Amino acid sequence: MREVLPSIAVVGAGDRGTGYAAYVEYAARQGLPGLRIAAIAESDPGRRTGFAERFGVPEAARFSDWRELFAAPRCAEGVIIATRDDEHVEPALAALRAGYTVLLEKPMALSEADCVRLTEAAERAQLPLLVCHVLRYHPFWKTLRGLVAEGAIGEPVSIRHAENVSYWHMAHSYVRGNWRDAAVSPMILAKCCHELDLIVWLARAYADGPLGRGSGLLPRRVASFGSNLEFRPERAPEGAPARCIEGCPAASRCPYDAVALYLTAKPVFLDAAAGDSRAAALAARLLRRRRRSRNSRAQDGPMPSRAGPK
What we know:
The chain is of the alpha/beta class. It has 12 helices and 6 strands. Helix 4 (89-97) packs parallel to helix 5 (112-125), helix 6 packs parallel to helix 9 (193-208) and helix 11 (266-273) crosses helix 12.
């Protein structure tokens, strides 16, 4: 008989892995006694240590590689796979073989063949494989799906969805960041897999509702449009250096300035002030980090002068 272990392991201690671990911590406080983060697998030593100390992961359960975690005896009921987009499939397959329920960060995989491999592996293991299409749980989308299902807008004929990526988010993630290489993880998967999921979810809502024609309705055709018009060499400001930190003459008026984003988070706070709820949440998190940093410095005493002792 399978032993139920009320705990979660995490693979990847980046922003998503840490964020989901915080939800586990919150759920434990809300009445799920015994639920905890049991293990972390992360290749970066600093992130691994910081994550482990924050969530109380013992030394023996800190792994530098997911292979080590899944080679060891099963230590948790489920595992959160929060690695980069092109590193989802193999750890998820290993987790299923090791007997873990898997919560897999989106996109599920970068090819149809790998999606099939994951699905078949979960069926063989008779274990749940869940993908983090979190918008299904947002009150807005849940309400909209309910309206579609009951026929409030009639029979859906087409669904149009725009992925409105904020300008600073675009610069941070898809120009300078980990998702800048479209050959590894194109926008249609890295970001718009949410839309692909919602389109199918909404179409099936009507088909399965009282006015629908039964289950199985899927979009007949999906088209996606988009291109990189802005971030091109010929559009760079006159006199712009290779990097923002090298004294760009356009820095004061450039919305993509890396110094403004990473040192002061100015674009994030501007969006938060304009009512962007996602930016507001990020701004609040940045403020908490700043407070923790200030408190830590205060406890450690004053910083030495950069000039050194006279």
